[in-house]
Specification:
Elements (H helix, E strand, L loop, with lengths): L15 E5 L3 H18 L3 E5 L3 H4 L15 H8 L5 E5 L11 E5 L8 E5 L12 E5 L2 H13 L4 E5 L4 H9 L5 E5 H6 L8 E3 L13 E6 L4 H10 L5 H16 L8 E10 L2 E12 L6 E9 L4 H17 L12
Parallel strand pairs: 1-2, 1-3, 6-7, 6-8
Antiparallel strand pairs: 3-10, 4-10, 5-8, 5-9, 11-12, 12-13
């Protein structure tokens, strides 16, 4: 399969097929990965658009299985051999990795923060009393409500679904005062200029893996797969992989699904130019914001997968001891 095949030009190589969701954001980030793979391998890369259940359903994410619903169709296409590799938003991936698939690369992370897009260029603290703020995330809902309670603000956080255009459209039409989105997504589609407020991670911790991409392919059952895994490995960023592994380990140890109200962020702590430690922060809360369990732990920068996993499990154990399990509703099975 990895041998040259006949094409328009003598010796032309078969294009690598990259599976992607059809949304504007998915196509933008997959296109960026495709460009990098072309430069890396010298091979053409074609995007294969795949519709997932999460794209067509209007149901609440928590009711249809969490954000894993955006992943299943891509993984099935991979296993059927219809695509050679797929690009996911890492925060959409369930924490359990299938044995027959491998995350060949996790490139350097984009900005992990959440942002506000509000009418009249308002910041969150400037929103009027009773302002309606849209988000599809229970994690954001819990933390925004908690912040509002603590700072004497009165906002109504309302559930919304849809792509970036749909969500920002609610604000432009006056149906909502603001929506909360991921900074990384707006950056990738060239719409960062519409952000009216960057929400500090001290205010709203992002979803585990937010801002990072996952490049997934079959687990090396053929020489073609093995060669592709090796080539894609050049796109991997070890610091990003260590950070998101710790974050996702926390999520898994809490036995929480992608749609649970869990925030986590691992970042590197440096002394001048020398990175000394990794700090992992986690939060779980009730959606009304009345109760949050928010803790952090700091340790040596993980040098192995097992060390990164241990950092996440350590913090999860502390959070569970503080009552985190009772704040997540029905825990993932």
């Amino acid at each position: 399969m990895s041998e040259p095949v006949r094409g328009p030009a003598q010796g032309a190589l078969r294009a690598l097929r990259l599976g992607t969701r059809r949304s504007q954001l998915a196509l933008a980030q997959s296109g960026q990965v495709a460009d990098a793979v072309r430069r890396l391998t010298g091979r053409p890369v074609e995007l294969v658009e795949i519709t997932t259940y999460g794209d067509v359903s209007r149901e609440d994410l928590a009711q249809i299985g969490g954000t894993g619903v955006f992943v299943t169709a891509l993984r099935e296409a991979l296993l059927r051999g219809e695509v050679d590799f797929a690009v996911h938003s890492l925060k959409d991936l369930p924490t359990a990795q299938p044995d027959d698939l491998v995350l060949a690369a996790i490139p350097e992370r984009e900005d992990p923060r959440d942002v506000l897009v509000a009418r009249d260029d308002l910041k969150f603290t400037d929103l009027p009393r009773g302002a309606r703020v849209g988000t599809g995330s229970t994690r954001r809902t819990a933390q925004l409500n908690s912040y509002a309670r603590a700072h004497g603000l009165s906002v109504e956080v309302v559930p919304v679904r849809g792509n970036v255009d749909t969500r920002i459209g609610f604000v432009r039409r006056g149906e909502l005062d603001a929506v909360v989105l991921a900074a990384a997504g707006l950056n990738r589609i060239g719409r960062a200029d519409e952000v009216t407020d960057f929400l500090s991670v001290d205010m709203v911790l992002p979803a585990p893996g937010q801002g990072a991409l996952a490049i997934e392919c079959r687990a090396g059952n053929t020489s073609h797969d093995s060669d592709l895994i090796a080539a894609l490995g050049a796109l991997d960023d070890p610091d990003t992989r260590a950070a998101v592994t710790a974050e996702r380990s926390l999520l898994a140890a809490l036995e929480a699904g992608c749609s649970a109200p869990v925030g986590a962020l691992a970042d590197l702590l440096a002394d001048g130019q020398i990175v000394k430690e990794m700090r992992l922060r986690g939060v779980v809360g009730t959606t009304d914001g009345s109760t949050l369990v928010q803790l952090s732990t700091t340790g040596p920068v993980p040098e192995t997968y097992d060390q990164a996993m241990a950092l996440g499990r350590e913090l999860a154990a502390e959070m569970l001891a503080k009552g985190a399990a009772g704040l997540m509703g029905e825990r993932a099975q």
